């Protein structure tokens, strides 16, 4: 276990905190693996009724660690942990709540498409620069974003890579509430406790009905993943990754 993911239980609430502030919570393979295990363990544990994703002040997540992308782009192995995490996320049996402050890039945005409630602060910007990186949408976002945002909103997010600041994200239906920075965690955890206090069987049936058949989602995550891996080895992606790695601040 690294300290980049901190798992905490508060009664029936399982908190999964991304905690790599020096890299703006860029997610490494080890972090994906720990988050996948936590989701599976929480789902299997009757004492857990809700999962909560949190980040650190100013950074929910800057997305996949670009050095890990570079490893695959240059012929190395990897990616299984991402796949495990995405499936665990799409498969969750229990509600998922997120509290997002500041940077929410790539998977830092697309995680929230799987959440039942997302709280965000006014300074939060959701952004998915997949295409600018020579990549394609992931985490089932090519399926979920059009459902949530409509076709044109999804294209603005996933195709153009436009930033959705908190108020726009709220108006677009991407998030549940905008709350002040110093209230974010309290509001997120209060909602989680409210969820945990509901009759769990009825809530599970209601949530499953709202989610519908998830087989299309699993299939989409798989197809996106195949494109994603292939794209990582493309000239477009390599050039974008080299540009990030060698940028001058
Ligand atoms: N992977 C690896 N390292 C990352 C990272 C990522 N996705 N995002 C940020 N970092 C690192 C930076 O390299 C920097 O490390 P250093 O201090 O050792 O140089 C550190 O985190 C702080 O980032 P910095 O760029 O200085 O912070 P910022 O506030 O100026 O900008 C971002 C934050 C998120 C806008 C910018 O870091 C960025 O664009 N990151 C890439 C996001 C991305 O494309 N993610 C993949 C999506 S698919």
UniProtKB/TrEMBL annotation:
SUPFAM superfamilies: ClpP/crotonase. It comes from Aminobacter aganoensis. Pfam families: ECH_1. It is found in: Peroxisome. Keywords: Isomerase, Peroxisome. InterPro entries: ClpP/crotonase-like_dom_sf, ECH/Chromodomain_protein, Enoyl-CoA_hydra/iso. Its main location: other. It comes from the Bacteria. GO terms for molecular function: delta(3)-delta(2)-enoyl-CoA isomerase activity. NCBIfam families: PRK06023.1. This is Enoyl-CoA hydratase/carnithine racemase.
């Amino acid at each position: 276990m690294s300290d980049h993911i901190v798992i905490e239980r508060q009664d029936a609430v399982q908190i999964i905190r991304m905690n790599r502030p020096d890299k703006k919570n860029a997610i490494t393979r080890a972090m994906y693996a720990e988050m996948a295990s936590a989701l599976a363990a929480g789902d299997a544990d009757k004492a857990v009724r809700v999962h909560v994703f949190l980040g650190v002040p100013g950074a929910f997540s800057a997305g996949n660690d670009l050095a890990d992308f570079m490893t695959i782009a240059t012929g190395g192995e990897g990616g299984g942990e991402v796949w495990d995490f995405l499936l665990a996320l799409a498969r969750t049996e229990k509600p998922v709540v997120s509290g997002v402050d500041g940077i929410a890039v790539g998977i830092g945005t697309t995680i929230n498409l799987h959440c039942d409630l997302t709280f965000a602060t006014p300074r939060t910007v959701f952004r998915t620069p997949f295409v600018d990186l020579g990549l394609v949408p992931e985490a089932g976002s090519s399926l979920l974003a059009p459902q949530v945002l409509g076709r044109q909103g999804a294209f603005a997010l996933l195709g153009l890579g436009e930033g959705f600041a908190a108020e726009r994200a709220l108006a677009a239906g991407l998030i549940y509430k905008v709350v002040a920075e110093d209230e974010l965690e309290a509001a997120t955890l209060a909602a989680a406790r409210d969820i945990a206090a509901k009759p769990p069987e009825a809530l599970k049936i209601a949530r499953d009905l709202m989610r519908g058949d998830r087989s299309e989602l699993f299939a989409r995550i798989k197809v996106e993943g195949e494109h994603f891996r292939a794209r990582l080895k493309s000239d477009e992606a390599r050039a974008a990754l080299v540009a990030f790695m060698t940028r001058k601040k």
